[in-house]
Amino acid sequence: QGELVESGGDSVQAGGSLKLSCVPSGYTFRHNCMAWFRQAPGKEREGVASIHVGGKTKNYADSVKGRFTVSQDLSKNAIYLEMNSLKPEDTAMYYCAAETLPPCGNWWLYKTFGQGTQVTVSS
User: Fold this and answer.
1) Which three-class secondary structure state does DSSP give residue 44?
2) pLDDT tens readout for residues 10-54
3) Across the beta sheet with 3-7, what order do the strands follow?
């Protein structure tokens, strides 16, 4: 059974930066959309950023626009989330997700998720 494998989570001070990575493992990748979600304790999971695989279309949640950047490496089917100017409210478990059908910004369509990587931002 294939899976999406996230890495890069850590504990940082407010204002710091992190870069998360997601690589599919163990299956033939056929998704057209990949995305990052996050879930903070006591809150619902929310879409953060998405990218059309092989394309240029990107979508961001309003709360991260201008601070987070999603990118891809097609040779690895990998996506990345570069997070700058981190705030305590960015603290959450971050999940990589994949979906076959665009539009990639429709967060409710995603059905395949990784196990997550923890990001903690202290003030």
Assistant:
1) coil
2) 999 999 999 999 998 876 778 889 999 999 999 999 999 999 998
3) 3-7, 18-25, 78-83, 68-73
CB 110 within 8 A of CB 98: yes
Structure tokens at 49: 């950023």
| Run of H or E residues at 39 | strand 33-39
66-90 per-position pLDDT tens digit: 999 999 998 888 999 999 999 999 9
Which are the contacts of 63, defined by CB distance < 8 A and separation ≥ 6? 89
Local structure of residue 53 (DSSP, 8 states): T
Cβ count within 10 A of residue 111: 9
Residue 58 exposed, middle or buried by CB count within 10 Å (0-12, 13-18, 19+): middle
Question: CA torsion sign, 52 to 86 to 23 to 97?
Answer: negative
Nearest to 67 by CA among 89, 39, 52, 46: 89
Both structure tokens of 5: 């494998």
